[in-house]
Amino acid sequence: MSFKTLVAILCLVPVALAQQPAWAQCGGQGWTGGTTCVAGYSCVAQNSYYSQCLPTGTGTGSGTVTSTSGGSSPSATSTTPLNTAAKAAGKKYFGSATDNPELSDSAYVKILSDSTMFGQITPGNSMKWDATEPSRGTFTFTQGDQIANLTKANGQLLRGHNCVWHNQLPSWVTSGNFNAATLSSIITTHCGTVVGHYKGQIYSWDVVNEPFNDDGTFRQDVFYNTLGQDYISIALNAARAADPNAKLYINDYNIEGTGAKSTAMVNLVKSLKAANVPIDGIGVQAHLIVGQVPSTLEANLRQFTALGVEVAITELDIRMTLPATDALLAQQKKDYQTVIAACRAVSGCIGVTIWDYTDKYSWVPSTFSGQGAALPWDANLNKKPAYDGIVAGFAS
Ligand code: XIL
After folding, report:
1. Is 102 noted as a catalytic residue in this protein?
2. Nearest atom within ligand 1 for CA of residue 209
3. Helix or strand or coil: residue 159?
4. What is the mean pLDDT of residues 63-74?
5. Residues 6+ apart with CB under 8 A from 150
6. Which domains does the chain show, CATH number per domain?
7. pLDDT value for 156
């Protein structure tokens, strides 16, 4: 073998090692191997746990995938940390949700714990009813405390999530056939105990989560069916009594733009205020789809703050149909910028929280089949173009 041939082979080796062969795994939660494929094959997500090298053009979805041989995913160029950008724009925080299982991932925790990047944390699951009162009167705070203690150590604000919600409810609540008086006292005990446990540690609580159907009528869950809309004031009053300094929010999705559901929220907040029920904020979840940010977002945030409450974007993510293409990632960058700029423009919009920061731990792929790549960091903890969109939104 000539020297020239040897050099040529040696130069090729690292590239060959970095690329996954045809049909091999190339990604998914917990995957630490190569994420690009040999020529002619593209890395296509099959689900959140498994991406596979498939012949280019044959995977689900359409368009050019970004991690084909020889190509590389577009990435962010801004070096401004996101909480720093939010504060420079006059906001209280830029934050992220997290969840307990992820806290064993040290590379993940390192970024999460940087308070210049994230000034606020929301526990994605561990303060919910099933986690905190799995059987009646038995409260468990170990997981919630782990996240509360992390934010304390990091100097980050904490949002409590949540007291009363139709989901992740233990069956003793949903199937107890309680009468109105008993369920009222169950809500008061639950919210009072959970909010009381974290007294002094919480910036704001999502006291009531997702009370509405998309048409603006009240959701028919065990609380509404037993107590009518009174369950909302019962929960808010219990939360206020337990931690007078926490801001009390009602949080929902599909209230980003104007429409029946947003109008229902406006009317609810008006009626609570008229009845002197404590209410400090409206949480706009903002689980959005690439290319579909409502054009009325800013106007809608204004109509909320005009009620005399603050507003926060509480669960932002912007999903796409997989595979992620350069074009989709570019549109996603624009969409993040649009959402952040709307919050920036409305002084009563006090902060933005993304629903975790990396595609590695996003709830999207397991909830919306075939969709994902919704967050500003990819599954390898690399910043995506969306990151630049966030920075630009705060600067605009
Ligand atoms: C999600 C969590 O992220 C998932 O881990 C869990 O399996 C289901 O709930 N709206 C909310 C959040 O208010 O609590 C939800 O969180 C996402 C939708």
Report:
1. no
2. 13
3. strand
4. 49
5. 98, 103, 109, 112, 113, 121, 156
6. 24-55 (no CATH), 82-395 (3.20.20.80)
7. 99
Distance CA 318, CA 327 (A): 14
The residue whose CB lies within 8 Å of the most ligand 1 atoms, and thus the one to mutate among 161, 168, 355, is 355
Q: Which sign, positive or negative, has the C-alpha torsion 266, 283, 342, 350?
A: positive
- CA–centroid distance, 167 to ligand 1, in Å, is 9
Distances (CA, A) of 125 to 103, 146, 193, 208, 355: 13, 12, 17, 15, 11
The residue whose C-alpha atom lies closest to atom 13 belonging to ligand 1 is 209
The CA 176 to ligand 1 mean position distance, Å, reads 24
Mean pLDDT of 178-200: 98
Please state the rounded mean pLDDT for residues 143-168.
Answer: 98
Tell me which of 71-75, 255-259, 260-264, 286-290 is least confident.
71-75
Look at ligand 1, atom 12, and give the residue with the nearest C-alpha.
Answer: 124
Catalytic residue from among 133, 298, 310, 315: 315
Residue nearest to atom 5 of ligand 1 (CA): 363
Element (H, E) at 83: helix 82-88
CA-CA distance, 12 to 39, in Å (whole number)?
13
Q: Is residue 159 predicted with pLDDT exceeding 90?
A: yes
Query: What per-residue confidence (pLDDT) applies to 220?
Result: 98
Asked if residue 363 has its Cβ within 6 Å of ligand 1, the reply is yes
Asked if pLDDT for residue 111 goes beyond 70, the answer is yes
Instruction: Give the tokens for residue 45.
Output: 């997500």
With a 6 Å cutoff on the Cβ, whether 96 touches ligand 1 is: no
**Residue 12 reports pLDDT greater than 90:** no
* Residue-level pLDDT at 310: 98
For residue 97, how far is its CA from the centre of ligand 1 (angstroms)? 10
Asked if residue 204 lies in contact with residue 281, where contact means CB atoms within 8 angstroms, the answer is: yes
